[in-house]
Specification:
35% helix; 111 residues; 4 helices
Length: 111
């Protein structure tokens, strides 16, 4: 892995249609994975890494109930990164996790 990683699934163009036109949450997501501690280890405690992944999803017009699906979708993303070997052992070694949804951008940030 590198500091910046883009993980595109085979159906990337159709995924954009799902996100922007159909406004549905697709099972075969693509993502941007950022692991800044690979170039600056001081960003996490010794022996640890910090990582952030951005998953393109529909905005709030998609009527997705993030209170219902958010936690499960975060689990799917973690399982993908671990199971596909991008970050082996991620689930067992995870110390802290959080996620934000389009609702956060709309309600908290006013975006």
């Amino acid at each position: 892995m590198r500091h910046h990683n883009i993980i595109l699934r085979p159906r990337y163009e159709e995924l954009l249609t799902d996100i922007f036109d159909r406004k549905i949450l697709a099972e075969d997501f693509s993502q941007y994975l950022h692991i800044p501690t690979l170039t600056d280890p001081s960003l996490a405690p010794s022996g640890h890494h910090a990582a952030y992944t951005l998953i393109p999803v529909p905005n709030t017009l998609g009527n997705i109930d993030w209170d219902t699906v958010g936690e499960g979708f975060a689990d799917i993303v973690l399982n993908f990164l671990d199971g596909r070997g991008y970050i082996p052992g991620l689930r067992e070694r995870l110390v802290y996790r959080s996620f934000v949804t389009p609702d956060y951008f709309a309600q908290t940030l006013g975006a």
